[in-house]
Amino acid sequence: MSTWKGRDVLNILDFSRGDLEELFELAKKYKEDLKNHRVNRILEGYVIALAFFEPSTRTRMSFETAAKRLGAATVGFTSGEGTSIEKGETLADTIQMLDSYADLIVIRSKFEGSAILASEVAVHPVINGGDGKQHHPTQAMLDLFTVTELFGSPDGLTYAVVGDLRYGRAASSFLLGLTRFNPEKVILVSPKQLRARPEVLMTLMDSGIRYHESDLETALEEADVVYVTRIQKERFPDPAEYEKVKGSYRITRGLLEAKAKNGLKILHPLPRVDEISHDVDNTEWQAYFIQAANGIPVRMALLSLVLKGDEL
Ligand code: CP
User: In testing the pocket of ligand 1, which one of 59, 64, 79, 299 has its CB within 8 Å of the most ligand atoms?
Assistant: First the structure.
């Protein structure tokens, strides 16, 4: 029996391996349906609210596309500008309104805990589309789906997670998501100012996942999956600190030709800045555009399971 119906999606740790495997099965079916132009209107009559207070291309537009592919309508905004937040309305009151207009709310905000607050106010399910540096659970879902698609399972693989592990919510949620599986080990590669946060490392440790820090070249020699992230300029409290670490790692085709383990795949939640050079895009190592495209079937599956559960 499915446990998905009516659930909030706030933190990847709220979901078991069984939950994620159920999601991946349905996403796989939807991906096949999309490929074969099979139309599915299972969410006809539903309205999804997209409350994006922070910039987004993939998360917002893939939720919107996923909803529309399944026959649902969407309402929402792409920044606080133009909403009555500008007149001093609180987040809680804004969510109260959206909850009365829609059947499900997706929220993105720079404030940590905003999705939890929204879930406390709303009667309908709330999905966290990213809250500050904290969580990006649906990104981790599509990342782990992509790994499953590429390798058959997230189990038994060596992962290198590269970049801004301190402020990058996608990297943190990916690391937390790995605790639902059995990786061989995790290699952490970051400038020392941007090391993974203690609560993330503690969760890895409590889950018995072996991890260690290393440099990029060694990680490329050992890893099956290299998860690269952008340095999150917008989250640095001091711009001078960003200047010290910007551009501190860069994956190029030449580096991969010299160092990459056989079969290595590169993931990146995107957007990228300069951490993966464009000459990697048309190589066998590139999996980040496949990963981004998987946002559609995974979010279609997520919306279906949260709104319909066993009725599917
Ligand atoms: N990966 C991701 O969250 O991208 P957007 O910021 O474009 O939504």
Answer: 59
